[in-house]
Amino acid sequence: xxxxxRDFIKAGAVSAAAGSALFNSALAHAAALHLPLxxxxxxxxxxxxxxxxxxxxxxxxxxxxxxxxxxxxxxxxADVKAAISAAGLHLVSAHYPMPMLRTKLDDIISxxxxxxxxxxxxxxxxxxxxxxxxxxxxxQRHHAFAIEDWHWNAEQLNSIADKVHAGxxxxxxxxHYTEFRVTDGVVPYDELMRLTxxxxxxxxxxxxxxxxxxxxxxxxxxxxxxxxxxLHVKDFKPFDRxxxxxxxxxxxxxGTIDYKPIFAEAGRSGHIQHIFVEQExxxxxxxxxxxxxxxxxxxxxxx
Length: 303
Fold this sequence. Notes:
The chain is 44% helix and 14% strand.
């Protein structure tokens, strides 16, 4: 069939308009989130011990408003509250690994309440028998979790959640990529969703690690609308998942993850309460890196 140049141009214009409409629709949904710009303070873990107050102040000057802790570097609750306030920040939640939650939970709840932290988050799982790690190579450790370990973790999360809620604080779980490696025919993340109490264990979905694990953040937001209430966002340089290549972090918008559809779905779900940037490594000086991330978030209308 003969197609004239005029018809070809017209078709291209229609296609471009449709693409623009879809893009604008995605931005509209993202903007509907109306969330403060958030940062997981693990991003500045090397700076905080050197200058706690000054680092937080710089974070605030970049426009970040909500923060999530990953350690307090021996500062008292009073000192942390003063530094957070002086920087114009709001401490929303706090990360702790499973071993700490199992052994120091009373202290963690008490400290969190002193700080006014709304949610304690389990930042990483634990093997039911951690001694197995001693005989494993680093590569083997990546695949160490059996389905029994995930079921045990679900039990621990429920038990911890009961105590945290009794203490007047909310509780959540943050994933890495191990949760998306098919184990005994199931995806561990789905098992955690199935076995944890939806009224007491909320999910903080790390979109970057979902992507690295081979999952689709958009699909999970749809599948578990209501269970997922917080997001972590990060990006990675191109990598070959099939070879087991370790992905290398890069600033948002400079890597492999397109957050437009993710934020659009988050906006549609209506359940996302907080979104935290997490920059685990840097290609430029840290504060310059966090500015790139902040600008990206603003560009997509999220903050």
